[in-house]
Amino acid sequence: MSETTIVDINIPNAGRVYDYVLGGSHNFESDRQAAEYMISLVPSTRKWVRMLRMFLNEATHRLSEEGFEQFLDLASGLPTADHIHQLLPNASVVYTDNDPVTVAYSQELIGDNEKVRYLDGDIRNVAAILNSPTMDEFFGADHKVAIGFNAVTCFLSHEEIKHIMSTLYEWAAPGSKVFASLETKLPDAMTPKMQQFVDMFDQMGSPYHFLTLEECRELIKPWQLDEQGFRPLSEWLGIQDQITEEDREDVGLEFYGVFLVK
Question: What is the pTM (predicted TM-score) of this model?
């Protein structure tokens, strides 16, 4: 980690909590304590988080089979052994994140790999990311790319999601695709433990928002669904039998995966 990176390791960070739940090592004691407390509130957390990473892997392979060799992954987290550039070593990949610790660790992990860049950029200001010189350097004038929007909608407001989707659509070349995961629950459904879970993210400075499926359909516009439509992650991964009603935590939890096309 860069010596110039300043961070209070006593304050948990949502990205590092995610890393811990995935079994990663780039986290601090405060992150581990927060993660374990959140798992005690919502035991299915570990299962859903692992499915989100499995979907990223599945999407990467699917898009590679369709001929995509250029990937822009937004709010990436740490590019560990199961991330895009490890799965597709010949692809050109740009990762982004706005957490200074994540960026510093990630740049060290990538090292001198000429096919990969890791940018310090906030997805909420996606235009600044897209206008970075790295975009043209890596993707050329024809921005036909596969765009990762995975495990991030829960940290964005409706207006932020709409803005990001429309900005990406304007920038991307025809034929580009977005692979996205969307965290949903039943409208107005809440339990005391789920409220405590959500409040923990608020305390970390990363307010957590669930969507309904109907909201998802509106917020992805102007991108178009591909022929496979909205499907639960468990269906994409062929593990439907591993999700129980107990995993839905009495609020109808469901995580959807979707491929969008311009």
Answer: 0.92
d(CA 247, CA 252): 9
CA atoms of 177 and 171, how far apart (whole Å): 12
Cα angle: 255, vertex 258, 262; to 5 degrees: 155
Residue 80, both tokens: 């560990």
Question: What H or E segment, with its residue span, contains residue 260?
Answer: strand 254-261
CATH topology of domain 14-261: Rossmann fold (3.40.50)
Domain boundaries, the chain: 14-261
Nearest to 204 by CA among 24, 10, 2: 10
Tens-place pLDDT, residues 47-96: 999 999 999 999 999 999 999 999 999 999 888 768 999 999 999 999 99
Mind giving me the DSSP string for 117-184?
EEEE--GGGHHHHHTSHHHHHHH-S----EEEE-S-GGGS-HHHHHHHHHHHHHHSPTT-EEEEEEEE
188-243 residue pLDDT tens: 999 999 999 999 989 888 899 999 999 999 999 999 999 999 999 999 999 999 99
